[in-house]
Structures are given as structure tokens and as C-alpha cells.
Backbone:
């Protein structure tokens, strides 16, 4: 398999996964704010920060208002991490390998792009914005559904899976981290677990979580569930296991596999439920650095970017 | 009310029509299909036309057009007219033989030019036509190739003239395109107009990708039984990218760009794969000579591969078509093809050339200027129908401007008598009307020779127009050998 094709497939799914997660992030944060109108500690600032885009945001917008944040994360073409930019990049990669993709998958991507370029942020109604966000999530899910139902298993499929799960680990660790940053000393409301419930919703984890843990929701349980659960498809541990499995079926995998395995063990043994916010933040920071290293190794190993 | 189709109402012109005689009766080979068409109404045709467009859209058959207003280019749907073009089998067998003969001589000519130069020394051809041509590559001198073949894939343009006979208009020996559209046209036709196929035993055309693969495999210089073959494309923005990816897919070979290949220290060419570097034996390139290698040709090329030409010279990789084969792809050299056939093969040419006047010759020049209205003036190195001047359409000042251009650079132009292209019934949106056409068959040469069954028929969709190029409003037809 050509390195360039593999690289396009890897990035295609990374971007589609990014679309879904960014949309989820906007969605839940909007809902959370409805529960606490007027609570300053729940502003959009941490969300922007967690995307490493604080400086860039400040240059383009005067305040961390909902409208600015949603525009920035949704359809600001200058922001390379916005949904619209991710869509653009996903389509670029899909075009380069269009013959390897099921036609319906490409069509799905085009439809999503057409729907979304209608200008989400220019619509002043919350309800309309919500439907844009909902479409982005379900559109990305349809795309992956088509891939999983129509794509032959082999190297190409593994690169798509790899891209998707590397991106997912990165995004989920950012989403959780955004909460650690939010929960600064200035918290004004009295429901310390409420953000964690919303976190579960962001990641569609609420129902699964409830099946395993009933009663009062404890912070430690949520953290354990999102990072260490073995069965839930959006837990970091589970994502790492799938990444490992993908790497295992690729050739020349010694180096990359080692990075993934080490990281997985580290997550497995960490006593995360006893971490305070600061410690958790540091751990997530470490996680992101290791994911970055894994990504770098995948590029060196398979895409020959060093040549 | 359902209007029936009737050949009695078919507009007659002074041109040779391939379906209908000047007396508005059907010709022998078009009787079956013509009679069947008469059983249809205009509404039926409209329906088939819509179905054709839908099929092309859903199959995504497109080509890219670049213009001054749109530098990024625009994907256009491939235009197909659903009335097939018919050629009798016996007639075609002769054409096929003639094409093989012609391309064989052309390949011998190219190898000769880069080696002993017998033809240049012994014929009346001005050697500067070859040696001063920008297509002449010094790095090819003394190179001899497997099967003595330089142009492995040739697309020759044929026209049918007023006498109902085929003539060669030009030979495209460098990187001819269009074959994928020939294959797709047949697939669409089977989908939208299956009834038509029952009228005849139409010869299938789908052997081409297999034959192309065999041709590519047979030029392999290495000992490997399963040579590694790749198709080298300039990338997604090339106007023929659709065809590149289609052919690569049909042959099951990798579609690569320049950045996917590397010439390693050992001088061999490798492709970058997820399993590391894999040696490449044969490159089917769809990039022009000057962009293949920054060391030879345009140093700024970003679509080529550094060191590729050298690897080719050292036989460490085979390139199809070979670099330097463009010397025979020149409208002035074209004039000498009949002589080449006699010189190399000791045979009479089977397909005729069109009489061509070289404007470097004073007698020719005077004759052409005196008979300007009956002439077509063509720049020798252009393709795609660009720069052609049709004498009878010229105003006085246009005529003088053309003469001035020719006088200042006679080597750059040739003249040919204006040939009236044949016509075939074509759906005009309302009825069937005669439209002009040409034919591009593809000739494969290496260990064996192969000619496509028919080829790509291009048709000028505008009434009276003779411009068949798809970038300039031309369409296409499925070509049937019956």
C-alpha cells in the first residue's frame, strides 16, 4: 500500500472524528449553560483553551460570548480546528483517494459539507444552531457507519481506524481537561458533580455509565469510567486498546506498538479516582504528549515524512 | 402527439453521412439500427437522453476544464451522444492493419533518429525538423529500447472524408488520452439503450486494460516475473486525472504521484509504501517529458522525480511512453510518414495521409497563399485544436495576419487542404441531425501490437462545427464495429 494513500486515509478519519467531537463539545457546553444562566465560571473560555487556540481566538473576537465561541468552533474557516475547516480537510483527503472509498461515503461527506456551509453562526436562534450541531454529529456517524459496513478489512481499513481512534483519544482527553480547567476556585454554584454528568453526556456515556454505577454520581467513578473502562467505546483505555489492535495488524510495527502499549499500561495502573483536578490535568497533559508522539511515529514509520 | 423519427426528414448536407445516403435512404450497414430508430418517437429519444445524463452523473464520469476565468478548473460531466457510430468490420480490419503498420514505422523512425539517422541522411526530409525540435532530447541519443519501441501507446486521429474513406489527421505519440471514455461510453450505452445492441453483434471493446497491462509488463527490464508497474499522474488537478485513476484501477496497479517515488542511491526507482521502499520496474507516465525529472527539462518541476531520466537511461526502470518520443509527434514530420513506411517496411501505406504542405518550401508556400480559401493552416506543435486557421472563415486582415505569421516562422506551420469531415446522426435536443466527427483509436506496441476495437469517436455538437475537442464543446459517441 502506498504511503500517501495510507496518510490520506488516516487523516480523513481523524478529521471526521474531529468534526463529531467538536460538535459534541459545543452541544454539551451549550446545554450546561442553560442550567446555570449567569454563572461566569462556566464560560466558553476553557473550551477555547483546551483546543490550544486562545491566542488566535483573542485576535479575532472581542469576548468569550456564546456567539463568538460557536462561530469560532463551528464555521470560522480561519480556525483550522473548526468544524467547517475539518470538513474541508476531510474532503480534501477523500478526494485524493476517492477510488478507494465507497462512493456513498464520499457523498455523505459532501452532503454534510453542503448542509453545514449554510452558515450556522449567522443564525441567531439557538434552536437552529442546535440542529446544525446535531447534523454534524449524526453526519459523521453515518460516514463511519458506511465505512464499517462497506469497506473491506485490510491495511486501508486499519489506517482509517487508527486515525479515528488516535483523534478520539486526543479529543476526549481535551474535553475532560476542559472541565479540570473550568473548575477553578471561583466556582459559584453548588452542584460539583453536575459538570461531570454533562461530561458523560458529551461522550454519550451516560446510559452506559448508569448500567454500571447506580446511585449518587461520584467524581471518581466518572473519571474511572471515562478513562479506564474496558468496554465503553469512548473511554481512553478502550480507544488505546483498539489503536493497539490496529497497529498489531500493520507491518513493521515494533516502534509504534511499543509507544501505544506503554501508554495503555500507564492508563491502566494510574489511580485516577484519587487525583485532584490539578493532578488530573497533568496526567491528561502527559497523555496528549504521548499521543502526539504516537502520531509522530506513525508518520515516520508509514508515511515516510522524514524522507 | 408522438412524433416518429423519419429518415426522410433527416437534413441532408453536402458532407458524407455515415448513416444516410444523399438520397435519404439508409446505407447497408446502418439499415437495422436506422429501421429500429424509426420505431421510436422524439419523446423516447428525450427519455434516453435524460437517462444518459443521469447515468454519467451517478458514475461520476467527468473531465476538468481550465479557462482564464477559472484557473482552478471546473469538473464537467462527460458529454455522450447515445446514437452509436457504426464502422463495418471489413473496413475496420484494413484500418487496424494500417494503424499497426504506421506506428511500427514511426517507432523505427524514432529509434533511428536517436541512433544511426539513416532516414534523415537518405530521405529529402530536412533534418532540422527533428534535430532542432524542442521534443528532441539529447539524453536519448544512443539509447536503444526493448522491442525497439518508443511510443508504446499511440492515439491516432482519423477522419472520414467526402469519399467515405479514412485518413490519418495526426498521430499523438506522447501521452494520448481518451481511452477511458471509450470504455465508459460502452458501459453507459449498455445501461441506457440496451435494445440497440440486439440489432447487431457489436464487437466488445473491454480487452483494452488487459492488453495495456501486458504491454507495460513486456517492457520490463528486470528479471522479475511479476514486474512492479505504476501509473504516474501529475495529480488530482490534471484534466485527465479521471482517466488516470480509472486505468490504474482497471489494471490493479498503484496510481502514484512524483512525490511517491524516489530514485535511491543504487540508481533504481522505488515507491514509498507502508512497508518501506518497493522497487518499481515500469512507469506508465502521464506527465510530459519536460516535467518528468528536474535534472532534465524544467528544473522547477514539482510533479516529477529527481534522477528518473538517468535511471531510465541505465535501464533500471522502463518508462512508457519513452521520453523523447515526441519528435515524431509533429505536423511537419507527419507529412513524411508515408515515406517512412516505404523506407523502413518496404510497404505501401495502407491508410492515407492528408496532403500536407510544408511552408518552409517556397513553391508550397506560394501555392498555399494563392489557394488560401481552400486551406487550413496549423501550428506544428499545438494540440487540442488550438491555433488552427481555417482559410475560408478568414477576413482579409485575419488572412494577412496569418500570412505574416507563417512568413516570419515557416517552420512552425503546415497547411492542408480543408477536409470535409463526415457526419453521423446526433441527438440535437429535438431531433436527429447530422454532426461532424472524428475517431481516435489507440495502438499499443511492444512485444505485440494491439489496436482498440474502434476507438473514441468525438463529435462536434454544435451545428456546422468541426471542432470535436471536449474542452471546446465537443461530445463523444460509442463506436461500433459491426
Residues:
Amino acid at each position: 500500500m502506498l504511503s500517501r494513500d495510507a496518510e490520506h486515509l488516516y487523516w480523513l478519519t481523524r478529521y471526521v472524528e474531529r468534526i463529531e467531537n467538536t460538535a459534541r463539545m459545543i452541544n454539551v457546553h451549550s446545554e450546561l449553560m442553560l442550567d446555570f444562566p449567569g454563572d461566569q465560571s462556566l464560560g466558553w473560555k476553557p473550551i477555547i483553551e483546551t483546543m490550544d487556540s486562545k491566542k488566535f481566538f483573542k485576535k479575532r473576537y472581542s469576548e468569550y460570548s456564546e456567539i463568538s465561541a460557536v462561530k469560532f468552533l463551528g464555521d470560522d474557516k480561519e480556525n483550522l480546528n473548526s468544524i467547517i475547516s475539518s470538513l474541508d480537510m476531510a474532503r480534501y483527503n477523500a478526494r485524493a483517494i476517492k477510488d478507494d472509498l465507497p462512493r456513498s461515503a464520499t457523498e455523505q461527506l459532501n452532503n454534510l459539507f453542503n448542509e453545514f456551509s449554510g452558515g450556522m453562526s449567522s443564525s441567531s436562534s439557538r434552536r437552529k444552531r442546535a440542529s446544525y450541531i446535531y447534523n454534524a454529529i449524526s453526519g459523521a456517524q453515518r460516514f463511519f457507519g458506511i465505512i464499517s459496513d462497506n469497506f473491506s478489512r485490510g491495511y486501508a481499513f486499519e489506517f482509517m481506524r487508527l486515525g479515528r481512534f488516535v483523534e478520539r483519544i486526543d479529543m476526549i482527553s481535551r474535553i475532560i481537561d476542559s472541565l479540570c480547567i473550568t473548575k477553578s476556585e471561583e466556582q459559584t454554584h453548588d452542584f460539583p458533580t453536575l459538570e461531570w454528568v454533562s461530561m458523560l453526556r458529551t461522550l454519550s456515556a451516560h446510559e452506559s455509565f448508569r448500567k454500571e454505577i447506580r446511585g449518587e454520581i461520584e467524581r471518581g467513578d466518572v473519571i474511572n469510567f471515562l478513562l479506564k473502562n474496558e468496554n465503553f467505546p469512548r473511554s481512553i483505555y478502550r480507544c488505546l486498546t483498539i489503536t493497539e489492535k490496529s497497529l498489531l495488524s500493520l507491518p513493521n510495527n515494533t516502534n509504534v506498538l511499543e509507544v501505544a502499549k506503554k501508554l495503555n499500561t500507564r492508563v491502566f495502573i494510574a489511580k485516577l479516582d484519587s487525583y485532584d483536578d490539578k493532578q488530573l490535568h497533568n496526567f491528561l497533559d502527559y497523555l496528549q504528549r504521548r499521543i502526539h508522539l504516537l502520531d509522530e511515529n506513525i508518520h515516520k514509520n508509514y508515511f515516510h515524512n522524514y524522507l | 402527439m408522438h412524433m416518429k423519427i423519419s429518415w426522410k426528414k433527416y437534413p441532408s448536407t453536402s458532407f458524407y453521412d455515415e448513416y444516410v445516403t444523399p438520397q435519404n435512404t439508409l446505407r447497408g450497414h446502418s439499415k437495422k439500427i436506422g429501421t429500429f430508430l424509426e420505431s421510436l418517437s422524439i419523446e423516447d429519444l428525450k427519455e434516453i437522453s435524460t437517462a444518459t445524463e443521469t447515468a454519467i452523473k451517478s458514475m461520476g464520469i467527468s473531465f476538468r476544464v481550465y479557462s482564464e476565468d477559472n484557473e482552478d478548473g471546473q469538473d464537467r460531466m462527460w458529454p455522450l451522444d447515445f446514437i452509436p457510430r457504426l464502422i463495418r468490420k471489413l473496413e475496420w480490419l484494413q484500418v487496424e492493419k494500417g494503424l499497426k503498420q504506421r506506428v511500427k514505422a514511426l517507432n523505427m523512425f524514432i529509434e533511428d533518429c536517436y541512433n544511426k539517422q539513416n532516414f534523415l541522411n537518405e530521405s529529402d526530409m530536412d533534418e532540422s525538423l527533428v534535430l532542432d525540435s524542442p521534443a528532441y532530447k539529447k539524453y536519448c541519443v544512443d539509447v536503444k529500447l526493448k522491442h525497439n519501441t518508443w511510443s508504446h501507446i499511440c492515439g491516432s486521429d482519423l477522419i472520414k472524408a467526402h469519399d467515405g474513406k479514412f485518413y490519418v489527421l495526426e498521430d499523438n505519440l506522447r501521452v494520448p488520452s481518451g481511452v477511458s471514455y471509450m470504455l465508459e461510453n460502452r458501459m453507459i450505452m449498455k445501461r441506457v439503450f440496451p435494445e440497440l445492441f440486439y440489432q447487431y453483434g457489436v464487437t466488445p471493446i473491454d480487452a483494452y486494460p488487459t492488453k495495456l497491462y501486458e504491454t507495460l509488463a513486456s517492457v520490463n527490464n528486470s528479471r522479475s516475473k511479476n514486474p512492479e508497474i505504476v501509473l504516474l499522474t501529475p495529480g488530482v488537478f490534471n484534466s485527465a486525472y479521471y482517466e488516470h485513476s480509472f486505468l490504474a484501477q482497471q489494471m490493479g496497479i498503484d496510481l502514484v504521484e512524483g512525490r511517491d517515488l524516489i530514485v535511491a542511491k543504487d540508481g533504481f526507482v522505488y515507491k514509498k509504501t507502508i512497508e518501506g521502499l518497493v522497487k518499481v520496474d515500469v512507469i506508465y507516465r502521464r506527465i510530459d517529458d519536460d516535467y518528468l525529472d528536474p535534472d532534465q527539462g524544467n528544473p522547477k518541476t514539482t510533479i516529477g522525480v529527481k534522477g528518473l531520466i538517468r535511471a531510465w537511461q541505465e535501464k533500471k526502470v522502463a518508462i512508457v511512453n519513452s521520453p523523447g518520443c515526441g519528435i515524431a509527434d509533429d505536423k511537419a514530420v507527419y507529412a513524411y510518414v508515408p515515406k517512412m513506411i516505404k523506407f523502413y517496411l518496404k510497404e505501401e501505406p495502407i491508410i492515407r495521409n492528408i496532403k500536407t504542405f510544408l511552408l518552409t518550401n517556397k513553391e508550397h508556400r506560394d501555392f498555399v497563399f494563392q489557394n488560401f480559401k481552400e486551406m487550413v493552416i496549423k501550428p506544428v506543435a499545438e494540440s487540442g485544436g488550438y491555433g488552427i486557421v481555417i482559410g475560408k472563415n478568414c477576413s482579409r486582415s485575419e488572412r494577412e495576419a496569418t500570412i505574416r505569421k507563417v512568413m516570419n516562422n515557416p517552420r512552425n506551420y503546415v497547411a492542408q487542404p480543408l477536409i470535409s469531415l463526415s457526419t453521423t446522426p446526433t441527438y440535437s435536443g429535438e431531433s436527429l441531425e447530422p454532426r461532424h466527427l472524428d475517431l481516435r483509436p489507440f495502438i499499443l506496441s511492444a512485444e505485440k501490437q494491439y489496436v482498440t476495437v474502434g476507438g473514441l469517436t468525438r463529435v462536434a455538437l454544435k451545428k456546422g462545427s468541426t471542432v470535436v475537442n471536449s474542452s471546446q464543446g465537443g461530445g463523444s459517441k460509442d463506436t461500433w464495429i459491426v
Q: What stands out?
A: Chain A touches chain B through 19 residues (CB under 8 Å). Chain A has a mean pLDDT of 86. The radius of gyration of chain A is 19 Å. Chain A has one domain: 3-303.
